Amino acid sequence: MTEAEVRSFMGTGSRTGKLATVRADGSPHVVPIWFAFDDHSGDAVFLTWRTSLKARNMQRDPRVSICVDDESFPFAWARLDGTASFSEEN
């Protein structure tokens, strides 16, 4: 898939993403997230509490992957790899 096709697939409906972060010992940590794409930057955006394990992992090592799948036949999936950044808005 092209990047545009990945974003289109991931943005269809209300699919749950699986976020992979790197634990302190180097092992993977994967959790479900609900996300959206920022209209201006095109970045995937999601909320998390600053003391959650995934947030602590991303603060220490910002490398992440998000995988989204369609569990209906013909079973498709897409993945985005990137670097996390943080924003605190009230």
Description:
By secondary structure, the chain is α+β, with helices and mostly antiparallel strands. It contains two helices and six strands; from the N terminus they run αββββαββ. Strands 2-1-5-6 form a four-stranded antiparallel beta sheet. A two-stranded antiparallel sheet has the order 3-4. The longest helix is centred in the N-terminal third of the chain and has 8 residues.
What letter string, H or E per element, gives the SSE order?
Answer: HEEEEHEE
Strand elements, count: 6
Distance between termini?
36 Å
The largest sheet, given as strand count, sense and whether it forms a barrel, is: 4 strands, antiparallel
Would you tell me the structural class of the helices and strands? alpha+beta
Shape: globular
Strand content: 35-45%
Question: What oligomeric arrangement do these chains adopt?
Answer: single chain
The average pLDDT score comes to: 90
Tally of helical runs: 2
Low-confidence runs (pLDDT<50, min 5 residues)? none
* Rounded Rg: 13 Å
Fraction of helical residues: 10-25%
Largest sheet: spatial strand order: 2-1-5-6
Please give the structural blueprint:
Blueprint: H1 3-10, E1 17-22, E2 28-33, E3 36-37, E4 44-45, H2 53-60, E5 63-70, E6 76-83
Antiparallel strand pairs: 1-2, 1-5, 3-4, 5-6
